[in-house]
Amino acid sequence: MTPRWWAAASAVGALVLTLLLAGLSLAVGGYDPIEAFGALLRGALGSPSAVLSITLVRTVPLLLTGLAVALAFRAGVWNIGAEGQLYAGAVAAVWVGLQVAALPAWAAGSAVLLGAAIAGAAWAAVPALMKLRLGVGEVITTLLLNFVAIELSAWMVHGPLQEPRGVFPQTEAIADVARLPIVVAGTRLHLGFVIAVGVALLLAAALRWTRVGFFVRAVGASNGAARVSGRVPVARVVLGVFLLSGALAGLAGGVEVSGVTFVLYEDLSPGHGYTAIAVALLAGLHPVGVVGTAVLFGVLEGGASAMQRDAGVPAAWVDAVQALVILSVLVMDRVARRGLERWREGRG
Is the model's pLDDT at 1 over the cut of 60? Predict the structure, then answer.
């Protein structure tokens, strides 16, 4: 069995283990697992409207933040700050969206998304420089900056960017020309989904077929070996990956503002930046795989309300399922690594 097959088997095993653990926990809690899963699937996939207006719309921020995490982890950069970078992008997107009313739609929309990406990259630049210049581990710095970004966003909607009447803790709605167009008439599916899938394909191609992609994979495989070889600019690769990862997470915030909410308010994200870690790990850090796992988590989020309404299961239970996914991924990853080592020893 090849390494790619081991990775696929690990992902499938993680999903099966998650279903078993989730079903067992539901049964212990006094709920019917079959009824609960059925309600979840009907709510997320039961009709074209549910798929397009709920599941795929919820998939978009998970996909972009999942790509941000997957790219960083592929290079051995432990960016845990996608949540904060998303908020930084959302704040920038709202500010830009309030300034571009006089521009054509294509220019206004592009400015909003570009501003969000730049803000996300700028937010990631702080831990990146601390890592490269001061040797400070990025796990702690990126995690702590999440709280700073969330509080900054809350301050903005209570202060400088609060709507003119000062009644609600949110901003004024961005200009109509800055909003992403709907791609399927009669649904809420916006252009952000197309952009996110396109980014995944471009990222996969770049990692597979470009020199820069080889450098990213080399640094991720062995930072020390890449540095000793003298042919891989390790510091520049780490900095570039950090900034691009932040830009993708910031773009997620911009897409959410310009495609879904049109305003900024407190708790804009229900934790997309943290869920992105599970999305990326379950996909084996492969950009194309992230598309599938993001849809899976979109199904979980999209079906949560239906599961609560039809089966009486608290919607917060979906958070427990996501935690089970992470635990299952870790277990199956360890099993797959041992199997791969034995396979390589057999070939040797």
Answer: no
Q: How many CB atoms lie within 10 A of CB 126?
A: 17
Continuous segment of H or E residues that includes residue 317: helix 317-347
Pair of tokens at residue 18: 């998650």
Cα pseudo-dihedral 160, 161, 162, 164, rounded to 10: 100
**How big is the CA angle at 184 (ends 176 and 103), to the nearest 5 degrees?**
25
C-alpha span between 46 and 51 (Å, rounded): 7
* Contact yes or no for 251/113 (Cβ under 8 A): yes
Give residue-wise pLDDT tens across range 260-301: 999 999 989 988 999 999 899 888 899 999 999 999 889 988
Instruction: Give 231-263 as a DSSP string.
Output: SS-HHHHHHHHHHHHHHHHHHHHHHHIIIIISS
Contact (CB, 8 A) for 295 and 41: no
What is the model's pTM?
A: 0.90
Angle at alpha carbon of residue 73, lines to 209 and 335, rounded to 5°: 100
Q: Could you give the CA distance from residue 274 to residue 322 in angstroms, rounded to a whole number?
A: 10
219 contact partners, CB below 8 Å, separation of at least 6: 75, 76, 226, 232, 234, 237, 238, 241
Share the mean pLDDT of the chain. Answer: 89
At 101-123, the pLDDT tens digits run 999 999 999 999 999 999 999 99
Q: What are phi and psi of 258, to 5 degrees?
A: -85, -10
Residue 154 is predicted with a pLDDT of 95
